[in-house]
Specification:
The complex is a heterodimer. By secondary structure, chain A is α+β, with helices and mostly antiparallel strands. Chain A contains three helices and five strands, in the order βαβααβββ. Chain A has a single domain, classed as Roll (Ubiquitin-like (UB roll)), CATH 3.10.20.30. Chain A has a five-stranded mixed β-sheet with strand order 2-1-5-3-4. The radius of gyration of chain A is 12 Å and the shape is globular. Chain B is α/β, with parallel strands linked by helices. Chain B contains seven helices and eight strands; from the N terminus they run αβαβαβαβαββααββ. The mean pLDDT of chain B is about 95. Classes of the chains: A alpha+beta, B alpha/beta. At the A-B interface, helix 1, helix 3 and strand 4 of A face strand 5, strand 6, strand 7 and strand 8 of B.
Chain lengths: ~90, ~250
C-alpha cells in the first residue's frame, strides 16, 4: 500500500510517499501509527498526539475518499495523510 | 471613443464573459447584485479579490489589518512598493478602484474576529476565507453556516493548495473536516506567489459557480493541488454527523 504525505507532513518528513506491506488484521489506525514511527519527530507530531493516537485534526483519505473510521481493516491502494493548511 | 466611466453601462465591461458557456446576461446581473467578503488581501485574497472585481461582483468587502512589509511583495499583488509600511486594506481598495471605478469596494482595517464576524457576514452573499490562521477561517465557517451564506475556503502551503466549497446545510463545511485548529501550524509558511494566485483563481471560479449556477460547484469535495507535479485531486468528503458547526442543520 502506498502512504502519500501532503502539506506540512511531506515537508517535515522530507518524503512524499511510503510504500508499506499490509499486516493481516491491522486497522488503518494501527497502520498509520506504525508508519509514523519511522519518520522524523516533527512529522510524527503532526500525525500522533502525546498518547500515541492519531490526531483528530489529521485529514485521512483512502483511495480518494475522506474517512473518519480508522478502526476499519487496512486495505486499498493509497492512504493519504494531510494536516490541514491555512496559508494565504 | 469616449471611455469615461460615467457613460459606460455595467454590461459594457462583461460582453466577452457573457459568451462563456453557461454564462449569460442574467448571470451577470446576479453578480452585479452580489456582495462578496474577502478575508485578508494577501497572497490568496489579493488575486482572488482582483478576479472578483474583474468578473463584476457588485460589491466587494476587503478585511485586513496590518501594514505592508517587504516580504509580502512576493505574492500580495494588490500592493505597491511605495506602500511599504502603509495599511494593506487601503492599498488593496485603491488598486481595485483604479482598475474599475464603477465597482463598490469597501475596505476594513480589521481582520475577522468575534466582534465583527456576524455583522460583516450579514452584509455578504458569499465569503472567501484567505486568512493565514485556522481560528479566523473557522470563525467565518461557523458564521456562514449560521447565516446560511456560501463559504469558499482557499488555502495553501509550500507548493500545494486546497479548496473547499460550502453550501451550508447541504454540503460538508470546514469544521466537518477540521473541527479545531491543528497543532503545529505556524503563522509563517513557505509560499510561492504563483501557488497562492492559482488557488485564488480556483476559489473565484467555484464562487462564481455558487452565485450564478453557470456550472455545478464542487461541494462535498476537498480539492487538493500539488504544483510540483500539477496533480489535482478531488477527494470526496461528507458532512460530519457530529460537526460542531453544521450538525444541527440536519
Amino acid at each position: 500500500m502506498i502512504i502519500t504525505l501532503k502539506g506540512q507532513l511531506q515537508a517535515l518528513a522530507d518524503q512524499s510517499q511510503i510504500d508499506t506491506q499490509l499486516v493481516s488484521g491491522e486497522s488503518l489506525r494501527a497502520l498509520i501509527q506504525r508508519v509514523a514511527i519511522n519518520i522524523s519527530d516533527e512529522a510524527r507530531k503532526l500525525i500522533l498526539d502525546d498518547s500515541g493516537d492519531v490526531r483528530a485534526s489529521l485529514f485521512v483519505a483512502l483511495d480518494g475518499e475522506h474517512i473518519r473510521d480508522l478502526d476499519q481493516p487496512a486495505g486499498g491502494s493509497e492512504l493519504l495523510l494531510m494536516p490541514p493548511m491555512a496559508g494565504g | 471613443m469616449n471611455f469615461k466611466s460615467s457613460i459606460l453601462n455595467y454590461h459594457d465591461y462583461y460582453t466577452w464573459q457573457q459568451d462563456v458557456t453557461g454564462f449569460s446576461s442574467e448571470a451577470q446581473d446576479i453578480l452585479r447584485n452580489m456582495t462578496a467578503l474577502v478575508s485578508r488581501v494577501g497572497g490568496l485574497g489579493g488575486p482572488l479579490a482582483f478576479s472578483l472585481a474583474a468578473a463584476g461582483v457588485g460589491k466587494i468587502i476587503l478585511a485586513h489589518d496590518g501594514e505592508l512589509r517587504p516580504d509580502d511583495l512576493n505574492r500580495q499583488i494588490l500592493m505597491k512598493h511605495e506602500g511599504l509600511g502603509k495599511p494593506r486594506h487601503e492599498q488593496a481598495g485603491e488598486t481595485l478602484r483604479r482598475f474599475n471605478p464603477d465597482l463598490n469596494i469597501e475596505t476594513i482595517g480589521e481582520n475577522i474576529m468575534e466582534s465583527n464576524v456576524a455583522k460583516l457576514i450579514a452584509q455578504s452573499d458569499i465569503v472567501f476565507a484567505c486568512a493565514p490562521l485556522f481560528e479566523e477561517r473557522l470563525l467565518m465557517n461557523r458564521e456562514c453556516v449560521s447565516q446560511n451564506k456560501f463559504f469558499v475556503d482557499t488555502a495553501m502551503y509550500n507548493t500545494e493548495g486546497q479548496l473547499l466549497v460550502v453550501r451550508p446545510g447541504e454540503s460538508a463545511c470546514l469544521a466537518c473536516i477540521t473541527p479545531e485548529p491543528p497543532l503545529g501550524w505556524k503563522r509563517r509558511f513557505p509560499v510561492l506567489g504563483a501557488v497562492s494566485a492559482m488557488m485564488a483563481q480556483m476559489g473565484v471560479l467555484e464562487g462564481l459557480k455558487l452565485l450564478t449556477g453557470y456550472a455545478p460547484a464542487h461541494t462535498n469535495t476537498l480539492m487538493h493541488m500539488d504544483t510540483t507535479n500539477m496533480d489535482l485531486r478531488k477527494i470526496k468528503i461528507q458532512r460530519h454527523p457530529d460537526c460542531p458547526h453544521c450538525s444541527h442543520l440536519g
